[in-house]
Amino acid sequence: MSHRNLLVAAGLALAATAGFGQGTYHEDERNAQQEARIHQGEANGTITPREASRLQAQQHQIRHAERRAAADGVVTPTERARIQRMQNHSSESIQREKDNGHVD
Q1: What is the reported pLDDT for 27?
Q2: Which of 7, 81, 92, 99 has the CA that lies 20 to 30 A from 40?
């Protein structure tokens, strides 16, 4: 009977982590895209090193918020909405810095 309980517990843990992983894929992909946009702007000179540093700090804050939200194993709709707002703000900041005319 203890083997059965162990198998049930392992199955539930696997199902919980699989469902949680699916919920964060979009955020991970979006973070990677935003990082790429920052690096691209640095490479082509449309984002200065100082601007890139500030944008990278925003990305760090987003990753920190994601880790904090996921710490208990459940990302609530409120937490997910907050992270999405942070990502939207960061995306707008990246675009604004790329379009502001400052060059290296």
Answers
A1: 78
A2: 81
Alpha helices in 1-104 (DSSP H): 2-44, 49-70, 77-99
> Please, what is the angle between helix 2-44 and helix 77-99, to 10°?
20
**Domain ranges across the chain:** 25-99
Q: CA separation (Å) from 53 to 8, 30, 50, 66? A: 47, 19, 5, 20
As a whole number of angstroms, the distance between CA 90 and CA 59 comes to 7
Q: What is the pLDDT of residues 45-72, one digit of tens each?
A: 999 999 999 999 999 999 999 999 999 9
| Residue 20 contacts residue 52 (beta carbons within 8 Å) | no
Query: pTM score, two decimals?
Result: 0.71
Token pair 């925003």 is found at 58
Q: What is the DSSP letter of 100?
A: S
